[in-house]
UniProtKB/TrEMBL annotation:
NCBIfam families: glu_cys_ligase. Keywords: ATP-binding, Glutathione biosynthesis, Ligase, Nucleotide-binding. Belongs to the glutamate--cysteine ligase type 1 family. Type 1 subfamily. Its EC number is 6.3.2.2. It is an enzyme of class 6 (ligase). This is Glutamate--cysteine ligase. It comes from Paraburkholderia rhizosphaerae.
Length: 537
C-alpha cells in the first residue's frame, strides 16, 4: 500500500544531494533555468486604473516575447528570458521595467498584488490582441472569464516563478535509483513529486512572502465578507499574509471549485484537466457561447482552456506554435514548474528580491529531491486548508495547522522545513562559492521568530505609521518605484534594441492578420476538436 503521509526525514534529500555533488557534474545543480513573469496594472497618479490601450510603443501584446498583457488591457505582464541564475533573471526584469517606464508617459505601474481603484466591473477593459484568429481567441477567452468570475478578480496581480533543474540532474538520479522508467517519464515523476511536496508546504511561502493583508473596500463590490475595517476605504485581516491567495476573489460556485488535479501521475493529471476542458458545466451552458452573433466563450465546459485552472503551481512544457499545453506535456513530459502564489513585494521596485529568489531556489530543490508521498483527496484537502488558513491568519500567535490528520504548531513545522531548506542552501552555496542562499534562509528564520519582519506585517505597520489607507500606501510605493526607474534610464544601445523588438512584434502581428486564412468560427471549431480528439481517454 503506497505511503500517503508526508515524509519529514532529510535522509532522501541528503542522499540525492550527495549523488549530485560527488562527481564531475556537480555544477548541474546550479545550471537549471529560472524565469520570472510579473503582472502590474497601469494606473494614473490618483490610483485609478488606466483606461488607455496597451501602449503601442511597447510593441504587440500578441507577439512580443517579453511585454504582453494578462487579463486586462491595463494589466501589463513583464516576462524575462529563462536564465541559469536567478540574479540574471532579476536583472532582466529590472531592464524591462526601465524600458517600460521610458514609454509609459504619465502613467505608473501599480506595485501591489491587490488592485488600485477599479471602475465598475463591466467597465474594466479586457485585453485586445488584434484581428487574427488567435488574437480573437485570446479576447473571447477573457470575455468568458468575465462571465464566469467577474472582471474585478482578474485584476489581481502576482509574480510567477518558473523553475527547472538541469536534465543532467534527472539523469544522475535516474541512474542512482536504477529506475525502469524512461528518462522522460522519470523526469516527469520527479517534477510531480516536487509539486506534491510544494502543495503540502507552500503555506510557508505565504507566511514568509505574502504581502497583501489589506485591500480597497470597493474591490469587494459590496459582497459579504469577514474582513475588519482599517479605515473608511480599507479592509484588512490583522493576521493575514496574502488576501490575494485567499478565497476572497474566487467564487466557490464556479465550475472548477470542485476540480482536484491529480498530481500522483502525469497521465492522471492530464486526464483530470482534459476532462475539465471537455465536460460541459450547466451554469456555463446557460450562458452559451454566442450573444447577438458575437462569441462570448470558447466553450461551455468546466474550463475553456487548460490555463483557466487556478493553481498555486503548474507542471509545464514549452509548446510549439499552435500546440495545446496538455498535448505538449503528454508528448514530451514535464520540463519545468510554474510557481504562481508569490505576491508582488511592494517594498521592491521590481516586485521581488534576489534574496526571495535564492530562498525559492533552495526550497524548490528540497521539494524536488525529498521523498514525496502521494496526494489522495484527503491529503489534497488538508493541504488546501492549511494554505488558506495561513493566507488569512498566518501571523496569529499559536496558529496550528493539520499535518497527516494531526494538529501541529505552524512555527514548529516551519522550523523543520527551514532545517531541510538550509541543507539545500548550504549545498548550493558550496557550488556557488558564496553564502547567499544560507543568508536568505537566515532572513526567513528571523521572520518566524519575529512576525513583524514579514512583508504583510510591514505593510500594515507602514500604513499605520503613515496614517495611510491601502490606496494611499500603494500609490506612495508605486510612485517611489516609478521615480527610481525614471531616474535610472536604460542606455542608448539597450533602448534601441527594445525599440526594435517592439517594432518587429508589431510587424509580426500585422503579417499574421494580413495572411490569415479561414473564418474565426472554423478556427474555434478546430481548436475545440483538437482538445477532444487528443484527450478522449
Amino acid at each position: 500500500m503506497p505511503n500517503t503521509k508526508s515524509p519529514r526525514t532529510t535522509d532522501a534529500l541528503q542522499h540525492r544531494l550527495s549523488v549530485l555533488t560527488s562527481g564531475p557534474q556537480r555544477d548541474a545543480l546550479t545550471t537549471g533555468l529560472r524565469g520570472i513573469e510579473k503582472e502590474s496594472l497601469r494606473v494614473t497618479h490618483d490610483s485609478v486604473l488606466a483606461m488607455t490601450p496597451h501602449p503601442r510603443a511597447l510593441g504587440s501584446a500578441l507577439t512580443h516575447p517579453s511585454l504582453t498583457t494578462d487579463y486586462s488591457e491595463a494589466l501589463l505582464e513583464l516576462i524575462t528570458p529563462a536564465e541559469h541564475d536567478a540574479s540574471l533573471a532579476l536583472e532582466q526584469l529590472d531592464t524591462l521595467h526601465r524600458f517600460v517606464y521610458s514609454r509609459l508617459g504619465d502613467e505608473i505601474l501599480w506595485n501591489n498584488s491587490m488592485p488600485a481603484l477599479l471602475p465598475d466591473d463591466d467597465q474594466i477593459p479586457i485585453a485586445r490582441y488584434g484581428s487574427s484568429n488567435i488574437g480573437k481567441l485570446k479576447y473571447v477567452y477573457r470575455v468568458g472569464l468575465a462571465l464566469r468570475y467577474g472582471r474585478t478578480m482578474q485584476c489581481i496581480a502576482g509574480i510567477h516563478y518558473n523553475y527547472s533543474l538541469n536534465e543532467e540532474v534527472w539523469r544522475l538520479l535516474h541512474a542512482d535509483q536504477q529506475s525502469t522508467a524512461s528518462a522522460v517519464d522519470f523526469q516527469s515523476e520527479r517534477y510531480l513529486a516536487l509539486i506534491r511536496n510544494f502543495r503540502r508546504t507552500s503555506w510557508l511561502l505565504m507566511y514568509l512572502f505574502g504581502a497583501s493583508p489589506a485591500l480597497d473596500r470597493r474591490f469587494l463590490r459590496n459582497r459579504p465578507h469577514t474582513l475588519d475595517v482599517f479605515d473608511a476605504d480599507t479592509f484588512y485581516r490583522p493576521y493575514a499574509t496574502s488576501l490575494r491567495m485567499s478565497d476572497l476573489g474566487y467564487s466557490n460556485t464556479t465550475g472548477q471549485s470542485a476540480l482536484h488535479a491529480d498530481y500522483d501521475t502525469l497521465p492522471g493529471y492530464l486526464e483530470a484537466l482534459a476532462e475539465a476542458v471537455s465536460q460541459p458545466y450547466p451554469q456555463y451552458e446557460a450562458i452559451g457561447t454566442k450573444r447577438n452573433g458575437e462569441w462570448i466563450q470558447i466553450n461551455t465546459n468546466v474550463l475553456q482552456i487548460e490555463n483557466e485552472f487556478y493553481s498555486t503551481i503548474r507542471p509545464k512544457r514549452v509548446t510549439y506554435s499552435g500546440e495545446r499545453p496538455l498535448h505538449a506535456l503528454a508528448a514530451r513530459g514535464v520540463q519545468y514548474v510554474e510557481v504562481r502564489c508569490m505576491d508582488i513585494d511592494p517594498f521592491e521596485p521590481i516586485g521581488i528580491s534576489l534574496e526571495a529568489a535564492r530562498f525559492l531556489d533552495a526550497y524548490l530543490l528540497v521539494c524536488a529531491l525529498d521523498d514525496s508521498a502521494l496526494l489522495p483527496p484527503p491529503a489534497y484537502t488538508e493541504a488546501n486548508k492549511n494554505f488558506c488558513l495561513v493566507t488569512t491568519e498566518g501571523r496569529k500567535p499559536g496558529l496550528e495547522l493539520i499535518r497527516d490528520g494531526q494538529p501541529v504548531a505552524m512555527v514548529d513545522w516551519a522550523n523543520e522545513l527551514l532545517d531541510r531548506i538550509a541543507i539545500a542552501a548550504a549545498t548550493l552555496d558550496t557550488i556557488h562559492g558564496d553564502d547567499s542562499h544560507a543568508r536568505a534562509v537566515a532572513t526567513q528564520r528571523a521572520k518566524l521568530a519575529d512576525p513583524s519582519l514579514t512583508p504583510s506585517a510591514r505593510v500594515l505597520q507602514t500604513m499605520r505609521d503613515r496614517q495611510q489607507g491601502f490606496l494611499a500606501f500603494g500609490l506612495a510605493q508605486s510612485e517611489a518605484h516609478a521615480a527610481f526607474f525614471r531616474a535610472h534610464p536604460l542606455d542608448a544601445k539597450s533602448t534601441e534594441e527594445f525599440t526594435k523588438l517592439a517594432t518587429e512584434s508589431l510587424a509580426a502581428q500585422e503579417k499574421l492578420e494580413r495572411e490569415e486564412v479561414g473564418s474565426f468560427d472554423a478556427f474555434v471549431a478546430a481548436y475545440r476538436a483538437y482538445t477532444l480528439n487528443r484527450f478522449s481517454v
